[in-house]
């Protein structure tokens, strides 16, 4: 197990690094530590931002400092981080029609599968939200089946529509904005990830479990227009 490292970030934050290689086990440790920090509520704590292998802690520099926050976190690590709170299960709808999944055929060919088999494997997997990053609402999901774990494209494409379902390596992502990407696009979702709610701006929390559910084109179009069919 890699040694835990602490790195001061500006005058009001501390980066806690629990390891170097992304894995479900390490991400679970990060989330357990995150839960323990919030339960203990060290003096001056403002916010934590968990990622795959590390955790950023922001604090009020008038109340505490890097050394005191590190001491509080080390004490929690020695005690053993609290058990991870089971994440909620979220459903994301996805349509796999050819024009909405421009890389599905290429993924199938590279994986030695039919396009339908790729879809079946993608739907059968359970994903977990490991972190947010890159753009608002971009939730990085672990859990892509091994057969579908293909590298990124050598060159990113511009203007990929919001709602695109992407895979690269062991990760999956649903875009929330029109953005460039070098990941493989295997479907599109009408499910709203960004929410008009300041208290809960994203559909997912870190640690939530995600399952994809297939819909046909008619339902996709209806939901995109604000319908409920």
Number of domains: 2
Work out the helicity level: 10-25%
Report the strand count: 13
**Element order, helices and strands?**
EEHEEHEHHEEEEEEEEH
Low-pLDDT ranges? none
CATH first level of the largest domain: Mainly Beta
What is the terminal separation in angstroms? 50 Å
Report the CATH architecture of the largest domain.
Answer: Beta Barrel
Please, what is the CATH homologous superfamily of the largest domain?
A: Cyclophilin-like
The number of helical elements comes to 5
pLDDT averaged residue by residue: 92
Tell me the Rg in angstroms. 19 Å
Summarize the biggest pleated sheet.
Answer: 7 strands, mixed
Sum this structure up briefly.
With 229 residues, the chain is an alpha+beta fold. The chain is built from 5 helices and 13 strands.
Q: Would you write up a description of this structure?
A:
With 229 residues, the chain is an alpha+beta fold. The protein contains 5 helices and 13 strands. The protein has helices at 24-40, 66-79, 104-111, 115-124, 217-224, and strands at 5-9, 13-17, 45-50, 54-59, 89-94, 127-132, 139-142, 157-160, 164-168, 171-174, 179-181, 184-188, 209-214. The strands form 3 sheets. Strands 5-13-6-7-10-9-12 form a 7-stranded mixed beta sheet, with helices on one face. A 4-stranded antiparallel beta sheet has the order 1-2-4-3, with helices on one face. Strands 8-11 form a two-stranded antiparallel sheet. Helix 3 packs across helix 4 (115-124). The chain is elongated and about 55 Å long. It starts with a strand and ends in a 5-residue tail after the last helix. 31% of the residues are buried. It comes from Marinovum algicola. GO terms for molecular function: ATP binding; hydrolase activity. InterPro entries: CT_C_D, Cyclophilin-like_dom_sf, PxpB.
